[in-house]
Amino acid sequence: MNFINYQDGRPIYEQIMERYKLLILKGVMSPDEQMPSVRKLAMELSTNPNTVQRAYTELERQGFLYSVRGRGSFVSGGAGLHARKREEIKEKLAGLLREAEEVGLDPAELLEESGWTGSRQQQR
Asked: Residue 122 and residue 92: Cα distance in Å, rounded?
């Protein structure tokens, strides 16, 4: 399990968070599944346990994990995670489209040029 990219400018804890968010949202990790212990994951990733703990704490704050005292961290369940991610993506997209309009670009034209039509990307 190697998902730390040292060429990436983001902090390691953010990379750990993003990887686990993706695994949870894709359903690779199921609700109530136990996360690796902080020490175990830190050893596997050759990083400081405080870095892993920071990622777990932030994932819990964002609703992706919950902790049980003395037992560890577990994956949260529910459609709420997908709904929040959907809203986050919609906000980012709206911001990008507004930015395009502000600089005189046609958002529809940009979407067409990028190969996106509807909800599927065209095969190139």
From this structure: 22
